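Sample entry (146 residues):
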Amino acid sequence: MTSSGIPAPVSRTSVSPLLMMTHPGFPPRTVAEVVAAAKAQPGRINYATSGPGGSGHLAGELFRIAAGIQAVHVPFKIIADIYTEMLANRVHYLVFVSPASIPMLRDGKMRALAVTSAKRNAAMPDTPSVLEAGLPGAEVDTMFGV
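Predicted structure, serialized as tokens:
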């Protein structure tokens, strides 16, 4: 425990990038195309996360700032609601932890745009990193620990 009573971290156990993805029916197919669409329609493109202040929200804001776009954050409490809204094309892109997203990608229900790390993720070798997509200021990894 720290002197303020907050549990002190013991060890980092793993690091994982987040994943930016869209519904396959959303016309932009790349990060550059999402950025172009958002710049053409300021404030009309939105992105979903699993809640305010979480890693997806912070990564989404870093992406928004690095891209110089006005995108609207739409927070949800459960991922099922996000997928429902994305399938209805009411939410345009999602920033979420990559391991939990892989089944949706494999099933073709979502399309990967980029991982939020500087390098590609071994589990998704065909998905570019945000650095490769031209947004070095959008790099962020989620850390897990004890």
